[in-house]
Specification:
homodimer, Rossmann fold, Ubiquitin-like (UB roll), 26% strand
Chain lengths: 546, 546
């Protein structure tokens, strides 16, 4: 580890090098981002997924700073968990810092955390590293990439980006900075692979404004736009369009309200105070003068839009004449929930626009031609596709190859795979774990393979507990058997089955020895219940000797 | 019910009027299709979903025939369940009949079932109805729509279709029949709404052949094409391309083998015997001479492709040099499984083509311009969008309105909603249920709301059973408390928590009365466990008195 530079993507379920990346040299490490993932559908009962930082915990003093590329959850959301184990100063642009502060205040960690604002273009020295941030366009303002001067050369991490020539907030990607790095010579480029499946260019956010304009021109009743709470630019687009069409803005949903408040305070949302409706005005103003922004694009059951669609919202319920825009695409895995929400909105008679009908959303990630431009601007010696699922990395790597980067200089890796750089070049190092940790309630990491497997089994066929008390001396049954079962059969209609099961237990115990009573009960019932139902509930015998 | 014609979409979870539709007049009912649905992701542990036929069961003698539009699972798959409750002659085209027979043979119902072959153009008299079938293009050969002459006029049911001008099997949609119905006058049109979100025309199956041709020209190693087992046309496309490129065909996977055998027997697949590889040849022939067709496009864990991608297949395991085509799009809800499969294929070094990269699949359903053509050809007086989720029906209805059908003549309904026709016109009738029934193992319909809710709770936070034996006289604990728990915490690491829980139970029992012992235990533990873990396992106290 002496004079080797090490780059390690950490954390992620499915996606590689998205939520956290570590760069280290000798006894100094810096991290880029600290985000959380949303649980995949087979992570039953799991609330959140955060990066596994056990590698960093081996030498917690080495970590000298966490740098943030932008303020989305999957880049800042793991901070409340990570900062409880590991302290380090944070470096972020103003808006990103604002979003981090909202989060840390809620977690009561704000006072204990050292945070530095780092404007695009700022340089920070951390041990052997000089970190410079440069502005990039993404679907949230104040996004940056990072150029890290290391003893072995310049490492460029793009964060997440697209080359939007007409961004909502007006600020272009810093092409000059990227070209400058390319001229100086880039040792390694870590670049956003998310859209490596998409040919061509990702459309500008401007396209969404044009769609909003069309919809606002047509709509006669209320307009309800749902988007991610962190998508401050999208909120600005709604505000601009509302102003144009003499509508005032209602902000609905806790996270949306908080983010809008913070973004207004920091000057990332342009609107007069009068533009915003007070909660009570939501119901009193004529529908034609109201535009509402809220969350719920993913069909999340507790989100504002879903509650509106289920007629369960305190303030706003969908009615005939409403126009609803879902300004996002479903994240894979959320399609069923999104479709159900759409169907409910249609049932209530709303006019609904979503990504299949109109360009109400554009991706925040570079498509293939932009990815090629990024490689062409920076001219890296080594190329590390990052921030995508494995197939995206492979496809991104193919683009790199097409642009002339030698295959052996491209590293398609999994999370936790160390890539080492020294004077001889670069190579794969050890694997250091670096997958993910599941969070369930207050527990971090205690729900692993075993508990998840049990939840799977329980979710499929439920369980059966059999309790029986035997006389210690005579081995006769003196109480029971009692059967408790859930998730297996509808107990009220299964009395015969349960009675038969009890008889079998009694019979089995009469013929067996008490030492093997539990095994006897389990085997007897497993066979019987499977034969009768073709289901395999988990079976737990409890034999008491009294 | 005397001289009213009734049309009732039955069955479906999410989709309306897709899996089964009933047409009845006086004491004669006919059904169109009898398909199953795949469980939605919140139907935990459910194997299959079939239409709720309780309405038909009220007068089982009324049902005089089931007519089939095509042989896909969601149109024939519920037969083994429905025919156990309700007998009726089946009417199907040759290939559809073949697929039905495979299914009924497996269910040992074939001998007891009366099946009639009905070629496109054939007419069948059933009571007051004359049913004529007409050929339509879909993603399976031998698809038909049905024109039903009723005492109140002609009802046209399109089944599923697109207007493919260059279908693989060479047989065009019977435009003349459709125009003829229009000229005669159509009372009601039930038309496929699936793609009502899609503007323009659905591309021809020919496009897929062109893509296959490009991929086969490039590939040097084995080619593995995965598709639905029922997609006989797609298999023919692979065969044609393989023949062109001097490759022989391996058919892998039980359902694929069965369907291919049946389709060859009936003449729906054109290929010499020599084209097909014997299982042992799969491994001995040079890779450049092999093309394999298999299932697995939806990432189904037990499918051939997924087992190949996990290196767990008996005959074929993916290796560097293989080219894999996923010739389908993910059904909503399956995205995560499909992505995982893709990533695994990429990890093994295969070259993988899927819908995001190449047109390896086209939809089998009409897009908006075709839907408009269908309405224009048939000129229905009443229009019933069918075979889609609710939003699709609404969007399809909007197309109908644009084409001049009066709004009051368009029926967007849910499953089980009767639509009545008589000399006065048409109107909504009663709701007759007609949702779906869940099948889990051998049980049909016994898993309902209650069991599913319990499975949900169990899948989120597991359960805790507390068993304690009290002395009948003294109320003292003479055995226990024992705690059994799964899916809640990792028990090995939670000894302290469990011990503390036991102490709390003992304490609670010491202070309480035995009549309330169970409630005491439940409340005490619920509060304690939530406070300590923020999880809410299901808690079951068992108090024995001995």
């Amino acid at each position: 580890m002496t004079d080797t530079l090490r780059i390690i993507p950490l954390g992620g379920a499915g996606e590689v090098g998205k939520n956290m990346t570590v760069v280290e040299f000798e006894e100094t490490a810096i991290a880029i981002d600290c985000g959380l993932m949303f649980p995949q559908s087979d992570m039953l009962g799991i609330d959140l997924v955060v990066p596994d930082i056990s590698y960093l915990m081996e030498a917690p003093d080495y970590l000298k700073g966490i740098f943030f590329t932008h303020g989305h959850e999957d880049h800042i959301g793991a901070l409340p968990y990570v900062l409880r184990q590991l302290q380090a100063p944070l470096y972020a642009t103003r808006l990103t810092r604002g979003l981090i502060e909202v989060k840390l205040r809620e977690a009561r960690l704000l006072d204990a955390t050292e945070i530095h604002t780092m404007a695009p273009g700022d340089r920070v020295q951390v041990g052997p590293f000089t970190v410079e941030s440069f502005h990039l366009c993404h679907s949230i303002p104040d996004s940056v990439g990072l150029a890290i001067d290391t003893p072995h050369g310049l490492v460029v991490h793009t964060g997440e980006y697209k080359f939007d020539y007409t961004p909502v907030h007006g600020r272009l990607t810093d092409y000059a900075a990227l070209a400058g790095y390319g001229r100086r010579g880039v040792l390694a480029l870590l670049s956003d692979s998310t859209n490596a499946e998409r040919p061509g260019y990702t459309p500008s956010e401007r396209l969404v404004s044009e769609t909003f304009e069309r919809v606002f021109s047509r709509a006669k009743g209320r307009i309800i736009v749902s988007t991610f709470a962190s998508n401050i630019s999208r909120v600005q687009q709604v505000i601009d369009c509302a102003l144009q069409h003499n509508r005032r803005i209602g902000v609905v949903g806790r996270s949306m309200v908080e983010n809008v408040r913070m973004a207004r305070k920091l000057g990332y949302l342009t609107a007069t105070d009068e533009m915003f409706l007070r909660p009570e005005e939501l119901e009193t103003l004529p529908p034609s003068q109201v535009a509402i922004v809220c969350t719920g694009t993913q069909g999340e059951p507790t989100s504002a839009l879903v509650r509106m669609a289920n007629q369960e919202h305190r303030q706003v319920n969908i009615q005939q004449g409403d126009t609803v825009i879902l300004s996002a695409t479903p994240i894979p895995g959320n399609e069923e929930l999104v479709h159900r929400t759409l169907d409910n909105l249609f049932r209530l008679g709303a006019t609904v626009y979503y990504h299949r009908l109109l360009p109400v959303h554009v991706s925040g990630h570079a498509s293939q031609e932009e990815q090629k431009m990024m490689i062409s601007l920076t001219q890296p010696r080594y190329f590390i596709p990052a921030g995508g699922e494995y197939r995206h990395l492979v496809l991104h790597a193919q683009l790199g190859k097409e642009l002339g980067i030698p295959e052996e200089n491209i590293f398609v890796v999994e999370n936790g795979q160390v890539i080492e750089f020294d004077d001889e070049g670069a190579r794969l190092g050890e694997r250091v774990g670096g997958g993910h940790v599941l969070i369930d309630g207050l527990g971090i990491g205690d729900v692993g393979e075993v508990v998840l497997r049990d939840r799977h089994l329980l979710s499929r066929d439920g369980f059966v507990v059999v309790v029986v008390a035997l006389d210690e001396a005579s081995e006769e049954i003196i109480e029971g058997p009692h059967i408790i079962s859930r998730g297996f059969v509808y107990m009220r209609d299964a009395e015969d089955l349960i009675e038969e099961a009890k008889s079998l237990v009694i019979e089995a115990l009469a013929n067996g020895h008490r030492d093997t009573a539990s095994a006897l009960i389990r085997d007897t019932l497993a066979e019987f219940l499977y034969r009768r139902t073709r289901r395999r509930p988990m079976i737990f015998p409890v034999v008491l000797e009294v």
